[in-house]
Design a protein that fits this description.
about 550 residues; alpha/beta; Purple Acid Phosphatase, chain A, domain 2; 2 domains; 16 helices; 30 strands; disordered N terminus
Length: about 550
């Protein structure tokens, strides 16, 4: 009996000598809210297009909701952060580039300042971050005056307070990435790695000059190669910010199905990747791909994605994640006073130019293409470029072509029909210079065939009045243009004949893969595309949409 009692006492003493492990500590979790945007494109003021969503009262119909603008977004970011101990605000590229005049006039300095004021922490680079080259992008990060236009803003530009990430963008001269590939942030002692990168096809959709000296590597290979390094630093939770996306079905917060490049990329990611925040395709979605949450917040600041992540304190990994795309309702959210003051400061300098009357429209000139890839806005833009370069002294052009990616906003019909310089600039924001060059008829055919270099995303050039042709996209690549349908002012295009053709300088250097244009002879540079459109409005207003029938999609073999 005494022996048993002694054993019991010894056992209790032994147990007491070890520290207790509370049950709660074994299952402790840390909550984190990630707020995300993509493809802001300098829209400090809300786009006139808002966001199209399913009608809540009738899901078979769609409605337009006024949305966007930095004043309202800043208020929503604050609202979505309230009550959350751990938050971080991130982005998936194209914050700048293809921007409206208010931002573009100052080389997107206002946008960088605006997002910094909102508390943006990290952003992947996108293709448009490289529109003015890597050195200008580094200036966006570090600050300082523009090398040509100098300091034009209301105050010195100090650069971004957030950090750009560029895991797949390598400077060929050094073999190093132009920005860090990832950044690790800690939340209640648990580290998370954020990897940022743009699509591997970036070099094909920026100007050759901007792509010079840069290599854009495969997305999945880049991310997977970083995983061992990140894990070696004791990090289990990995979030990818990628400027590449997909095309979903369903409403802005749904994803019954999704197609596009992002699907295969996510499937190739190492299983260590927990969450993917995407962009580039200007689509809103909350999807599950290969068992992982994949999100996108539309474009132009119409949405902020609120992602609630739960981290396990023991495994230090993400154990759950759910997302909600929240509309930046510009008609109900309050205006953030700091953003209002920032816009006002730049507006004071921009307004005299922005508010100049260009002319008027009788109806909206839409950039939305028809089945053949032609749009009402594309027709007018091409006509404007032809008008600016027809005179012998200006190049002697007989036809003009422009790339659809350069058309960034509809020219909307307001109540009075008035169109300002700011409106014109918003539709053509790259400020590309017009170039008139000589091509043979066969080179024009070659150029048109190159519209299908990417068969999943053909780039149908917009054409000026007088030129017409038909194509059959069921034919093999290189034989899709129906050559005997090509005509200019009623006369057939002759393969051996020379024609003076106007394009912009982006296309003339082989942008979007149109390498046939690099063979053009006797180049003559002219005005900027937005200025040509402004002049066209001044000379021809009021302007109405023309019949969209210059390009025909053949029904042959269908």
């Amino acid at each position: 009996m005494r022996h048993s009692l002694a054993l019991a006492c010894a056992f209790l003493a032994l147990v007491a000598s070890y520290p207790a492990t509370p049950v709660a500590a074994q299952s402790a979790t840390v909550d984190l809210r990630i707020l995300a945007i993509n493809d802001f494109h300098g829209y400090l003021r809300a786009s006139s297009g808002g966001i199209r969503i399913a009608d809540p009262t009738d899901k078979t119909k769609r409605i337009t909701v006024p949305a966007g603008g930095s004043e309202h977004m800043a208020s929503l970011v604050k609202e979505l952060s309230e009550g959350h101990k751990n938050t971080i605000f991130v982005a998936a590229g194209d914050l700048i580039g293809a921007s409206p005049l208010l931002s573009a006039m100052f080389h997107d300095e206002p946008t960088i300042e605006s997002l910094s004021m909102m508390g943006l922490a990290l952003a992947s680079v996108g293709n448009h971050e490289f529109d003015e080259g890597k050195d200008e992008l580094k200036r966006m990060q570090d600050g300082g005056c523009h090398p040509v236009d100098q300091c034009r803003g209301p105050h010195p530009f100090s650069g971004a307070k957030f950090h750009y990430l560029a895991a797949s963008t390598v400077a060929t001269a050094t073999g190093k990435t132009v920005f860090p590939p990832y950044e690790i942030r800690e939340f209640d002692g648990i580290p998370i790695a954020f990897i940022g990168l743009t699509l591997k096809g970036t070099s094909g959709i920026i100007s050759p000059a901007s792509a010079a000296g840069l290599e854009f590597r495969d997305e999945a290979e880049t991310v997977n190669a970083l995983v061992p390094e990140i894990k070696a630093r004791g990090v289990e939770a990995i979030v990818v910010l990628i400027h590449e996306g997909g095309y979903p079905t369903g409403d802005y917060n749904e994803c019954p199905e999704i197609s596009g490049a992002i699907v295969d990329i996510v499937k190739k990611f190492d299983r260590a990747v927990d969450l993917v925040i995407s962009g580039h395709t200007h689509q809103p979605y909350v999807c599950e791909i290969d068992g992982r949450l994949v999100t996108s917040a539309d474009k132009y600041g119409t949405l902020v994605t609120a992602i609630d992540v739960r981290l396990d304190a023991k495994s230090r990994d993400i154990v759950s994640a759910k997302a909600d795309n929240v509309i930046v309702r510009s008609n109900t959210l309050p205006k953030d006073p700091e953003q209002t003051a920032l816009i006002a400061a730049y507006d004071t300098l921009a307004a005299p130019i922005a508010n100049r009357r260009a002319g008027s429209v009788t109806a909206t000139l839409s950039r939305v293409p028809n089945a053949a890839g032609e749009s009402a806005l594309g027709d007018i833009v091409a006509d404007a470029q032809l008008a600016a370069t027809m005179a012998a002294a200006n190049g002697g052009a007989v036809v003009a072509f422009t790339n659809p990616g350069g058309l960034r906003a509809d020219l909307a019909a307001k109540d009075d029909g008035e169109v300002t310089y700011a409106d014109v600039f918003a539709s053509q924001p790259f400020r590309n210079q017009l170039v008139t060059l000589t091509l043979s008829g066969s080179q024009i055919t070659m150029m048109l065939e190159q519209q299908w270099l990417d068969p999943k995303r053909p780039r149908i050039l917009q054409v000026s009045k007088g030129f017409s042709y038909a194509f059959d996209d069921t034919r093999p690549f290189g034989d899709r243009v129906i050559t005997n349908s090509m005509s200019l002012n009623g006369e057939a295009i002759v393969p051996a004949k020379s024609y003076r053709v106007t394009v912009n300088n982006y296309l003339s250097t082989g942008g979007d893969g149109f390498t046939a244009l690099t063979q053009g002879a006797a180049q003559q540079f002219g005005s900027y595309d937005s200025d040509a459109l402004y002049a066209y409005f001044q000379a021809n207003s009021p302007i109405s949409p023309t019949p969209v029938d210059r390009i025909k999609r053949s029904t042959e073999a269908k």
